[in-house]
Amino acid sequence: MTVPLSILDLAPIPSGGTARDAIRNTVDLARQAESFGYHRYWLAEHHFAAGVASSAPAVLIGLVAAATGRIRVGSGAVQLGHQTPLAVVEQFGLLDAAHPGRIDLGLGRSGQRRAELARHSERPPAPPAQSRVVDGLLIPPPFDFSALIKAAPHLAVQASLLQQPGAETPDFADQVDDVQAFLAGTFTSSDGRTAHAIPGEGADVEVWILGSSGGQSARVAGERGLPFAANYHVSPASVLEAVEAYREAFKPSDVLQEPYVIVSADVVVAEDEGGARELAKPYGLWVRSIRTAQGAMPYPTQEEADAHVWTEEDRKLVADRLDTQFVGGPKAVADGLRVLQRVTGADELLITTITHGHADRVRSYELLADAWR
């Protein structure tokens, strides 16, 4: 049976465009995605990025849900390190009250970057890893964090701006437990006092955990019997590790009796491979801006991408993301995604497509939906 396709949208700002353009494009794409048969429409959370307008997922979810009627709409993901569980539950309680039974609350770890970068900086250099192919799926070497470590002070300033002065990020597992308790109406503080999230308590939202490795996010999702989203498009090297860790940790719950995994993929589809390759040209330059800690740049045009002079260091920065992007005609991309689904055992695939032209992005999703059926 063909598994469902869903969409992850960053509300990309195209070069020469504005955040207003990005939001208008997101709403239009969501409407059309619903008509194409996509199952979910998730909005990411990103900050300090000139090329991304999805800094407040709950706001965008409200706009998208109001413009559509059937498709599930949610976050991919709310970064819990930047908000309290109560604030998140209240926001999504409001969304559920306005659009009952259609809202997904995807949760992700955040506020960990400084500590994680510090740990990477203390490690000896890892020996060069090689790409491998697992049953037809490319698994590239892990991304080398050395470039980001150089930007650690810059990232530390950004992280400090996302929290109140002196705030400390609680343990992710504890935050997830608090979210679930507020939704269930069972929250009790450490000193035995109860509190209720209104709206939020009793909201009919699906809680998801998103993760890029076999670390805490995968374990928390499995141990609590929640659905899990694994990132092949962000961290292709660790996708198999992530889904395996989730399944190994899984315990049946009131939410799920068996593990449920959604796996993401970067995709560009056109009528033929040549057209798709042309549309996908700017992707490497855009990823380079992320991997050099600049934050995602406004999404370049093909001409801007052609003008960039690539160094060998640049190519190494983006190789894993370029090599694992699914680019081509409808049948070729659909076949590649079926390999990804088979190897990971995904119950659903989460597609993210970015092109400079909005019409090209809409058409890519339309062609893929037709080929998938």
Tell me the layout of helices and strands.
Layout: E1 5-9, H1 19-36, E2 40-43, H2 57-67, E3 72-75, E4 78-79, H3 85-98, E5 103-108, H4 113-122, E6 132-134, E7 137-139, H5 146-150, H6 152-161, H7 172-184, E8 206-211, H8 216-223, E9 228-231, H9 239-249, E10 261-269, H10 273-280, H11 283-291, H12 302-307, H13 312-323, E11 326-328, H14 330-344, E12 348-352, H15 358-372
Parallel strand pairs: 1-2, 1-12, 2-3, 3-5, 4-5, 5-8, 8-9, 9-10, 10-11, 10-12
Antiparallel strand pairs: 6-7
Helix pairs in contact: 1-2, 1-15, 2-3, 3-7, 4-6, 8-9, 11-13, 14-15
Determine the N-to-C terminus distance: 10 Å
Query: Average pLDDT across residues?
Result: 93
Question: Helical content, roughly?
Answer: 40-55%
**Percent strand:** 5-15%
Topology order in helix (H) and strand (E) letters: EHEHEEHEHEEHHHEHEHEHHHHEHEH
Number of helices: 15
> Biggest sheet, open or closed, and with what strands and sense?
8 strands, parallel, barrel
Shape: globular
Rg, Cα atoms, Å: 20 Å
Q: Residue ranges: pLDDT <50 for 5 or more in a row?
A: none
* Count of DSSP strands: 12
Strand ordering within the main sheet:
1-2-3-5-8-9-10-12
Classification by helices and strands: alpha/beta
